[in-house]
Design a protein that fits this description.
The chain has a domain of 84 residues. The chain has 6 helices and 5 strands, in the order αααααβββαββ. The protein is rod-shaped, with a radius of gyration of 66 Å. 36% of the residues lie in helices and 30% in strands. By secondary structure, the protein is α+β, with helices and mostly antiparallel strands. Strand 4 and strand 5 form a beta hairpin. The protein has a 5-stranded antiparallel β-sheet. This is Lipoprotein.
C-alpha cells in the first residue's frame, strides 16, 4: 500500500515535467525509437544502396574482347622479265641484204623496156632491140650509224643498172639475137632504219 502511494507520487511529479518539455518543443527520443522515426526517404535510400550490387571499377572487365592481330599478307616478289637482247649490227645488215635483193627482183620486173618486153627501133638498114636490167651480181650493201635524229642506222644499196642491145637486119632477128651490155650506170640508194625495220 505504501509502495503504491510512492509510485503515484513519483508519477505526479514527472507529469508536469513531461508537459513542460512538450510545450517547449523538446522531444526526448530514445535510441531504440530513433530508427523508427527516420524519414521514409532516408529509409528508401538505404534500401536502394543495400540492393544495388557493387559496380566493378575494373575497366578491363567491361572492355570489348580484342581481336587477335592478323598477320600481314605476304606478297610474292615479281621478278621483272628480262628484256630481249638488242639487235646486233649483223642482224640489221642481214635485213638490209634481204630487202635489197627483193628490191632488185622487183626492179627487173618493172623496168621498161625489160627482158620480157623489149623495145625495137630501126636505125638505118638495121633493127636494134634493147632492154634494161639490174645486175644482181653487182649488188652491195653497207650500214652506218645515223648522224641525225629520226633513225638509228643508214643503209646504202649499190647496184648497176645495165642496158642490153641486139642488132640485126630484121626486127625478128634483133629480138631473138644475142644481147650484150652497151651501157651501165652505178646507182646508190640511201635508206634509213627505224623501229626495227628498213624504211624504203
Amino acid at each position: 500500500m505504501k509502495q503504491g502511494r510512492i509510485a503515484l507520487a513519483a508519477k505526479a511529479l514527472t507529469l508536469p515535467v513531461t508537459l513542460a518539455l512538450a510545450l517547449t518543443g523538446a522531444v526526448c527520443v530514445s535510441p531504440a525509437g530513433a530508427a523508427d522515426t527516420a524519414t521514409p526517404q532516408a529509409q528508401q535510400t538505404k534500401k536502394t544502396q543495400e540492393k544495388a550490387p557493387a559496380k566493378s571499377t575494373d575497366k578491363t572487365a567491361n572492355a570489348a574482347p580484342q581481336k587477335p592481330a592478323t598477320k600481314p599478307t605476304q606478297v610474292a616478289k615479281v621478278t621483272p622479265a628480262k628484256k630481249p637482247v638488242g639487235e646486233t649490227i649483223e642482224d640489221v645488215h642481214n635485213k638490209l641484204d634481204t630487202l635489197a635483193r627483193a628490191k632488185l627482183r622487183h626492179m627487173n620486173e618493172s623496168l621498161r623496156p625489160c627482158q620480157t618486153r623489149k623495145d625495137v627501133v630501126q636505125n638505118g638498114n638495121e633493127f636494134v632491140a634493147r632492154y634494161l636490167a639490174v645486175d644482181p651480181d653487182s649488188l652491195s650493201t653497207d650500214v652506218h650509224d645515223a648522224q641525225g635524229p629520226g633513225a638509228k642506222y643508214v643503209g646504202l644499196i649499190v647496184y648497176h643498172e645495165q642496158e642490153y642491145e641486139s642488132r640485126a637486119a630484121t626486127k625478128e632477128a634483133a629480138l631473138t639475137g644475142d644481147f650484150s651490155v652497151v651501157k651501165a650506170r652505178r646507182v646508190t640508194e640511201i635508206i634509213r632504219y627505224d623501229k626495227g625495220k628498213w624504211i624504203d
